[in-house]
Predict the 3D structure of the following.
Amino acid sequence: MRKKIIAVVILAACMASGAQAEERELGRGEKIGLGVGLVVGSFAGPPGAVFGAIFGATLVDIYSRARQRDALTGQVQALEAETQEYQAETHQLREALADARTAVAAARVQLASQVPGEQVADSVGFDLLFRTGASELGEDDLARLHQLVGLLEAHPELQLRLDGFADQRGEFDFNQQLSEARVAAVREVLEQAGLEPQRIQIAAWGESEARAIEGDLDGYAMERKVRVRLLAPASAMSARSVDQ
């Protein structure tokens, strides 16, 4: 019995001296872990002291992980707060940009209303490009079409011409239907924006006008489109005759 007591005392003394040597490097959690380990081990003799040391080290690890978790939680909360501020600023910038675009569109319409319709028809025209196999319009395309409606409202004598195209990949019938769907998508946006259906002329050409070299991805991209043109009264009559 005396040997066991002596062994426990010696082991405790060694561990205590080691703990004192590293005291400056240990935090409160480490001290608690070692202390608890020694107390647990002292009740079970030398083997228990070894177990107590292991148990104390485990407590040190748990405490250390808890501190790391708390630190990470604080960082996450700070990032979430910054993200919310960024989202709020982004929302404000988008609203300001939308207001600026509206003001620019209104100014263009006002300026265009002072220009003869023939000149407007000659100077306004653009292509709306589409993704492969798609007929959906992007946000920028929608904004341009709404501006176009405002321009046409300022010039009721003008007509609008829409020609749909597709690149040569895929089956002929599919490309024809795809060009028709693209024209229909543009016309729907214009009509929903207030443009009278009778002022819109449409034609779908499928892949019949495709000229890109096989494998030319940039060339394909330029052929997936709806061409938008304004027509003066005389041009509108001529275009209708060609379609017929």
